[in-house]
Amino acid sequence: MLRPRLQRNSELRRLSWNANRIMSFTDIRWNRIVNKTLPFDLRERLPYDFRDVSRVIVIRWKGEGMAQDEQGQRRPHRYFDLVMVAFVATLMISNIASSKILDLGFFTFDGGTLLFPISYILGDVVTEVYGYSRARRVIWAGFGANLLMALVLVVVGLLPPTEGWEHQAAYEAILGVTPRIVMGSLIAYWVGSFSNSWLMAKMKILTRGRWLWTRTIASTLLGEGIDTLLFVVIAFYGTLPRGTLVAVIVSNYVFKCGLEALITPITYRVVNGLKRAEQEDYYDYDTDFNPLKLNI
């Protein structure tokens, strides 16, 4: 059972005085602090100058995907695996939907653009709540799933169809992939996602945990910009007229970033709900931001 919320103002003042005597809570285990801890609900009620006495006043629960309760017993994050599944599913579905090109008013883009921005929003949620290290694991999971799907579709397309099955041409038109498109998709996703998560984590420290909307929108502007530019250039440069190429880049970028801005209120609700449910609000002060390092 988690430590009960402190209610009286006198207790808040006493806790504030004690906290100012501590350099940082960042690397201290929950079970090593007896009377001077900050439960999540209480931390949310405190003014920002108190919440950032040294680097940040926040408990970082230690362990491989585990938080700790009052007795120091490890408990798993309840929703991290669900967020990861949603991220990977969104990524794979959007890649398949990309086989159809849409024309919606002023925008011309592939069908996957309707769903793909959700993956960046989920990436923002993971980084904001669980930290860059867990976001890195989620990104690699999506990369592996996307690569496996592309390889399976290629192999199935190359295998001879059975007699009487007359849809080989339709299969190749919808699910067939070319090396340039596969390479462009994987490279753009990898670089864009890590850029998005890196900026999100750095801005959280810079803003001291305030103004979530600035982090979600700024990281999307960077990540989606890199992703869109790399994918379109690698996949279609030399095969589309330059004017069409520029139109596709601009349309994709504007639509994706606009969708991120519109969904910001929903992002706030999801982030705040997960922080309360998980008792987690991670700050990446000592994180190794090497994207090739998979351990947490």
Task: Compose a concise summary of this entry.
The protein has eleven helices and four strands.
Strand content: under 5%
Question: For the CA atoms, what is the radius of gyration?
Answer: 23 Å
- SSE ordering: HHHEEHEEHHHHHHH
Number of helices: 11
Instruction: Describe the strand arrangement of the main beta sheet, using strand numbers.
Output: 1-2
How would you explain this protein's 3D organization?
The longest helix is centred in the middle third of the chain and has 28 residues, at 179-206. This protein has helices at residues 9-19, 40-45, 48-51, 80-97, 116-130, 132-158, 168-174, 179-206, 212-236, 242-262, 264-278, and strands spanning 66-68, 74-76, 101-104, 107-110. The chain is built from 11 helices and 4 strands. The protein is mostly helical. The strands form 2 sheets. The chain has a two-stranded antiparallel sheet with strand order 1-2. It is globular. Strand 1 (66-68) and strand 2 (74-76) form a beta hairpin. The model is unreliable at 1-74 (pLDDT under 50). Helix 4 runs parallel beside helix 6, helix 5 runs parallel beside helix 8 and helix 5 (116-130) runs parallel beside helix 11.
